[in-house]
Model the fold of this input.
Amino acid sequence: MTRTATAAVLREYGAPLRLETVTVPELRDDEVLVQIHGVGICHTDLTAATGGVPVPRPVVPGHEGAGVVTEQGSTIVVFDLGAVGTAAVMTARISLCENIIVVAPDPRRHGLARSLGATEVLSPDDHDDLGRHLRHLIGGGADYAVESVGAESVIRQALSSLTSPGVCATLGLRAGRNPVSIDQTHLLSGRTLTGVIEGDVDPHRFLPELAALWRDGHFPVDELVQTFDFTKLDDALAAVASGEIIRAVLTFDIRGNT
Done:
């Protein structure tokens, strides 16, 4: 019996996603069938939809799904989940960091940053030399900096905010190639610039810990999420693209659907 599902399909770069009925293929040995209950919209999805990240087309975007496995093949499958960039603030608080400083150009995010644990929130446009100001504010520089924009200027600011030695993690995705040049002096003074993918963690250990932190009220990701019915996909995409919300999650009427 042929099974079908409703999916948001991207057929051409820059074109609107369309809700279409698609055929669910037969399950391979190394696959599972998941009944999706919710899926987050990541900025990577927006970048891919405009061609910034090459993807085959037609394609059903999305990589932050959560649901229930309804069927499985004969081979064990490993699952992973997407992450929320703002979680760095909550993680720093949980890790008992003394100073948690957020640099955010959007004033709508400042109050949220403080409520999640930031001890100081700055606008990058308020300081000519942001790195120097941060070193002065902290008293020598930060031990760690998390750069989630991917812009060369922001990476340079993050590196210059560090103490020596210090570590800057960069994880912001830009459309297309993104060459970045930095002053080698940062590296010679013991500073490190490193890339991060999917949190650089073992999901078998980390995800249960993350769920426990959420359950105990230490990782309130609920405050970062606004839900949209799947039929309101265009509204959700617009809200994410405008920066109006932190994370949109599409929800589904799962009665009789996969």
Notes: The two ends are 14 Å apart (CA to CA).
